[in-house]
């Protein structure tokens, strides 16, 4: 819901994601938010994803994912769900080539 994004509890995270400048900041935030069991492995995966899809596509997907979770989407594993979304993005980009 728009009100929640603009003024509610989720707003701070969106602004924070937009303010992450380096790849390191972005992947560290993602690993933390996704509650990764093995953050170092996740960070390597996320950096590889940024190389394949681009930083802004990664940022956009991360924002969308955070919004879904903050909006009440339930999942067994944030890490698995986010990685699945990244894989779909990478496959879509490959198909466009």
Shape: globular
Percentage of residues in helical conformation = over 70%
- The end-to-end span amounts to 35 Å
Number of strands: 0
Mean pLDDT: 88
> How does the major sheet shape up?
none
The number of helical elements comes to 6
Structural class: mainly alpha
Low-confidence stretches: 1-10
Strand content: under 5%
User: Radius of gyration over alpha carbons?
Assistant: 13 Å
Please explain how this structure is put together.
The chain is mainly α and 97 residues long. Helices cover 78% and strands 0% of the residues. The longest helix has 19 residues, at 78-96.
Question: What structural keywords apply?
Answer:
97 residues, 0% strand, single chain, mainly alpha
Brief write-up:
With 97 residues, the chain is mostly helical. Helices cover 78% and strands 0% of the residues. It contains 6 helices and no strands.
Fold blueprint:
Elements: H1 2-7, H2 11-19, H3 23-33, H4 39-53, H5 55-70, H6 78-96
